[in-house]
Every structure is written in C-alpha cells, then in structure tokens.
Amino acid sequence: MARDTTTKTPAGGDAPKKKGRLTQIREVYGMTRKEDPKLPLVLAAWALGALVVFVALGVLLGSPLFYGIFGIPVAVLAAMIVFGRRAQRAAYSSIKDQAGAAASVLDTLRRGWDVTPGVRFNRQQDMIHRVLGRPGIILVGEGNPNRLKALFTEERRHLTRLFGPDVPLVAQDIVAGDEEGMVPLGRLNKTVMRLKPATGKGYLRPAQVQEYQNRLKAVGPNMPIPKGPMPRNGKMPRGQVR
C-alpha cells in the first residue's frame, strides 16, 4: 500500500497552507493603511526622496544613470524600513485600548526573556505581567495606576516569600499606557530591556535566568485559593472562591 504523505490535522482535515511572504506583506499593508490612511503617500515620498538624492549625486559626479539605477533598490529599502515602523505603530494603536495589550507587546521580546502574562488581576481588568530577564524580575502593569499599586504589592510579597530576601526584583515597576508617567506600548520593550538590576544586585547569568524560570514554572500561576478547609469529597464549594 502506498504511503499517504498528506499532512492532516488532528481532526482529520487537511492542514492549512502557510501564507506566502507576499501575501503576508499585502495583509499587513492593508491593516496598516486602515490605521494610517496616509501610508501610500508617505512611502512614495520616502522612496522618491531617496531616488532623487542618488540621481542628484550622480549628476554631481558625472554619472546620473549609474547612480539612478543604483538608487532604485535603496529607494525600495527606504520605503520598506518606513513601512515596517509605521506598521508596528499601527499595530500598537489598534490594540492599545484592549485588555492584555501590554502582554501582546512583551511577547515580542527577543530571545532570553520570559514573559508570564496576567500573574495578578482584578475585576476591573487591571493586570500585572511578569518579565524575567538578565536585569531580574520586572513587573509590568496595565490599567488604573491607583488600583495597580495593590497588585504590585501583592506580587512583590509573593515573590519575596518564594525566593527570600535575595529575590532579583527590579526596583522600578512599569505601567503601560499613554498618560503621564506611563510607558507607551511603542516604547515598552525598549524600556524593559534597558532596565538595570536593583541596587547591589548584578545582572543574572543565562543559567540563573533559566533557574529562576524553572522555579517560577514549578510554582505555577497565582490561582485564587478558597478560604476554609477543603471538603472531604474533594469538590470545590461554589461561591467560596474570591
């Protein structure tokens, strides 16, 4: 019997085909243009400006045709760089008012950073995200700054009980947002990566980062614990979980 090499999904259907590079760029362009209607004019202006610079340089050096041809790929590159930046800005703009937006941005941190979203939260959808990297453990909040203070305090106490007085907590807590004193989503990752360890504590080695990561995963998420004794039948009584 011939071997069936067709890729199947667990449900038995055909696996979805991966989108090509051009298809992805087209979709990103469409989404970016919805948030940034001036995108075509901006890209054209940058590309044309780069090409004009090379042609003008060619005229000064007596070889406008050569420099003009050489300027075409440079103009395309300039337009792609601007497109990437404006696409990123549009993506941040489209999610900035949604719960968990900061976690979505933090998930794009480069290799070597571990992000645990929603380690603390309340009914008003204020939440704390935990980031572990070489500076140590960083707490990032999103929501109302006044309500976040209690969540920051709770998480700091939890980490201190877990790791003791030597817990590598970065002194500065970050609140993501557009108000004064907050860090905009577009600068969130850069701000996190530039943080320094707490006073008296050095940067963690990669092995130490992995050790802390393993210990945090072993503890698991901070699930609410019901008050009172556990019932003998092992079932959780309703209405006692806060």
TrEMBL record:
Pfam families: DUF4191 (PF13829). It comes from Catenulispora acidiphila (strain DSM 44928 / JCM 14897 / NBRC 102108 / NRRL B-24433 / ID139908). This is Integral membrane protein. Residues 219-242 are annotated as: Disordered. Keywords: Membrane, Transmembrane, Transmembrane helix. The chain crosses the membrane at residues 39-59, 65-84. It comes from the Bacteria. InterPro entries: DUF4191 (IPR025445). The keyword Membrane applies.
